[in-house]
């Protein structure tokens, strides 16, 4: 046996025991005649001690140790002279009688401490060393805990975890597929699943009425801090359910995760908001409802006063920001520049200061009387001391910009406390989104989402305006302004599914080639069904109070989609290329080098 205890386990009550520990050397230090070694494993750190009277063979081993050496240490647990209240094992140390080096270690390229001196790139290259650090260990522990709780909860409700294949045919979820060439089927490709969507629906046809899977999904998208080319979902599907049945089960799951993992009680019931309300009031389909500052439309109030900018637009809207009526000219200019950044895209910013003394001051004083300005401020919810920020333009675009501004002001005013959790269901999305560029409809969720039953007639209309009005029986779970999950009641009628492909512009042959398997399956007794999926990496990050998901994934990719530790993607041998019937049109590494 390599060890009798872990490095996080021993307490004062163990004093007098002879124990053996194994782990990594965090640091060694000499103090007077004493040598101290901090021994670390994933459970904690225990101090090993050696005094001047120790035999030569012991002290010479102790003196030879470097950082991150793997050692085995035997000795007696004794009460420490100077205790360390910050460490769970801080009351004791091990008086060494035996010390064995199990493996030496090169000096690590960065310090393995809570606050490391290593840059992101360096730590990514040595991810296995970075993973020795507490913050990452804690992140992975949290991930494990959440996965375990999810399985417990769903198992207790009769859900079965069933694996679905990774080498499949493309499922459209709105992203690009990763593809895998098939050696045995020349010229043909598998796609890696963007999600198990079609398979879980086929499982419903097969009668497995409560399915879930904590599953890897693959999407070839441009990456941001909260995106990875491969990510994990808690994927679920149920049969013989309506929307509210699904929402109830998964509200329960969220409630139990919050309670069991964070000890937090979240809203019961979780509020629901229609997509239209979310856009009108928050300028976002994933509103952060931890604070107000909602959007108010002022189009009617401002038009017809001779201010050309407002008169010529579809929509004028405002948010009332608390307590900033004392903003200086400079601060307002800075904010105006901020909304003009391409990421926001506004042409300019109009303000109304509702001063603490009840007077008003605005950048459009010329066109409106003080009473009119005050009435607008009050309509948008401003109180004395607040300032109204006004944007204008096309309706949804302007609301979206106001939504971005609202988040920014929420950050500036410290209203987005990561320890407050405000969950929300967004429901009743439009089913379809029109794209001017390609002049066709796209499914807002995915093509398997059912229209709301009361909108079926509209769904069969040939008029674009009618189709734009069709609502989906879909829902998103939103937490603190982040979309954590989403799903829908599905189409289970082959004819409706065929109509959906038609609306999306697929020819009959194309729909049959790509989705024939599911259209056919629906002809063999498909039950009504629906489900959803949660982004598991994001869930972990939110529970861990972090913005980026990378720390919650053991081996993530960087924002170029590279794993810099194993140096992938990489070139493959010509033999492999030939076997796969592949010819690359990309420059060879040599050609690239020559260019550089
Ligand atoms: N497959 C969907 C997604 O990945 C979720 C669902 O509709 O269940 O977003």
Characterise this structure.
This protein has 596 residues and is an alpha+beta fold. It is built from 19 helices and 22 strands. The protein has four domains: 12-103, Beta Barrel (OB fold (Dihydrolipoamide Acetyltransferase, E2P)); 135-267 and 536-552, BirA Bifunctional Protein, domain 2 (2-Layer Sandwich), CATH 3.30.930; 291-412, GAD-like domain (Gyrase A, domain 2, 2-Layer Sandwich); 423-527, no CATH class. The strands form five sheets. Strands 6-9-10-22-21-20-17-11 form an eight-stranded mixed sheet, sandwiched between helices. The protein has a five-stranded mixed barrel with strand order 1-2-3-5-4. It has a five-stranded antiparallel sheet with strand order 12-13-16-14-15. Helix 4 crosses helix 17, helix 7 (275-282) packs across helix 12 and helix 15 (494-503) runs antiparallel to helix 16. The longest helix is centred in the first third of the chain and has 23 residues, at 134-156. Residues 173, 195, 197, 486-488, 531-533 line the site of aspartic acid. Aspartic acid (ASP) binds at residues 173, 195, 197, 486-488, 531-533.
CATH-derived architecture of the largest domain = 2-Layer Sandwich
Helix content: 25-40%
Number of structural units classed as domains: 4
The N- and C-terminal alpha carbons lie at a distance of 55 Å
Instruction: Indicate the mean pLDDT.
Output: 95
Give the distinct bound molecules. aspartic acid
Percent of residues in beta strands: 15-25%
Q: How much is the radius of gyration in Å? A: 30 Å
Please report the total strand number as a whole number: 22
Which parts are unreliable, with pLDDT below 50 for 5 consecutive residues or more? none
Which structural class matches the secondary elements? alpha+beta
Q: Please summarize the sheet with the most strands.
A: 8 strands, mixed
Tell me the name of the CATH homologous superfamily of the largest domain: Bira Bifunctional Protein, Domain 2
What is the name of the CATH class of the largest domain? Alpha Beta
Strand order of the largest sheet: 6-9-10-22-21-20-17-11
> How many H/I helices?
19
Q: What name does the CATH topology of the largest domain carry?
A: BirA Bifunctional Protein, domain 2
Overall 3D form: globular
């Amino acid at each position: 046996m390599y060890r009798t205890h872990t490095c996080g386990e021993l307490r004062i009550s163990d004093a007098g025991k002879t124990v053996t520990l194994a782990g990594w050397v965090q640091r060694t230090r000499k103090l007077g005649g004493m040598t101290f070694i901090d021994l670390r494993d994933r459970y904690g750190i225990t101090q090993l001690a050696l005094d001047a009277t120790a035999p030569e063979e012991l002290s010479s081993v102790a003196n030879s140790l470097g950082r991150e050496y793997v050692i085995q240490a035997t000795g007696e647990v004794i009460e420490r002279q100077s205790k360390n209240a910050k460490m769970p094992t801080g009351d004791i140390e091990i008086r060494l009688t035996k010390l064995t080096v199990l493996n030496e270690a090169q000096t690590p390229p960065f310090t393995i401490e809570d606050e490391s001196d290593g840059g992101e790139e360096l730590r990514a290259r040595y991810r296995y060393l970075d993973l020795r650090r507490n913050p990452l260990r804690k992140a992975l522990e949290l991930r494990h805990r959440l996965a375990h709780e999810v399985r417990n909860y769903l198992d207790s409700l009769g859900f079965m975890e069933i694996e679905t294949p990774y080498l499949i045919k493309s499922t459209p979820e709105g992203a690009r597929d990763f593809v895998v060439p098939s050696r045995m089927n020349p010229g043909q490709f598998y796609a890696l699943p963007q999600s198990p969507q079609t398979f879980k629906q086929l499982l419903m046809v097969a009668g497995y009425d409560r399915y879930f899977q904590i599953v890897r999904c693959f999407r070839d998208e441009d990456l941001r801090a909260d995106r990875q080319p491969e990510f994990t979902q808690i994927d679920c599907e149920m049969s013989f359910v309506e929307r509210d049945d699904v929402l109830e089960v998964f509200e329960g799951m969220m409630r139990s995760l919050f309670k069991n993992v964070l000890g937090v009680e979240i809203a019961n019931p979780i509020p629901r908001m229609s997509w239209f309300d979310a856009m009108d009031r928050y300028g976002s389909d994933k509103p952060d409802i931890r604070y107000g500052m909602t959007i108010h439309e002022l189009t009617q109030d401002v038009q017809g006063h001779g201010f050309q900018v407002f008169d010529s637009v579809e929509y004028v809207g405002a948010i009332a920001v608390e307590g900033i009526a004392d903003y200086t000219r400079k601060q307002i200019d800075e904010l105006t520049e901020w909304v003009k950044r391409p990421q926001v895209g506004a042409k300019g910013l109009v303000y109304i200061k509702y001063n603490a003394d009840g007077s008003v001051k605005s950048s459009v004083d010329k066109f409106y009387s003080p009473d009119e300005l005050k009435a607008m401020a009050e309509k948008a919810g401003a109180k004395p001391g607040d300032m109204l920020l006004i944007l204008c333009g096309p309706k949804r675009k302007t609301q979206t910009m106001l939504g971005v501004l609202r988040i920014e002001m929420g950050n500036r005013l410290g209203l987005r406390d990561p320890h407050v959790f405000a969950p929300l269901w967004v429901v009743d999305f439009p089913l379809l989104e029109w794209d001017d560029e390609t002049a066709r409809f796209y499914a807002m969720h995915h093509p398997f989402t059912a229209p709301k039953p009361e909108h079926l007639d509209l769904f069969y209309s040939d008029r674009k305006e009618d189709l734009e009005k069709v609502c989906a029986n879909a829902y998103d779970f939103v937490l603190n302004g982040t979309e954590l999950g989403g799903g829908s009641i599905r189409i289970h009628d082959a004819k409706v599914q065929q109509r959906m492909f038609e609306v999306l512009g697929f020819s009959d042959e194309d729909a049959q080639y790509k989705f024939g398997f599911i259209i056919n399956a629906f002809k063999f007794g498909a039950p009504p069904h629906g489900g959803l999926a949660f982004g598991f990496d994001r869930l972990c990050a939110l529970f861990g109070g972090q913005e980026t998901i990378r720390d919650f994934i053991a081996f993530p990719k960087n924002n170029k989609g590279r794993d810099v530790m194993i140096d992938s993607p990489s070139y493959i041998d010509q033999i492999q290329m030939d076997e796969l019937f592949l010819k690359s049109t990309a420059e060879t590494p040599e050609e690239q080098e020559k260019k550089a």
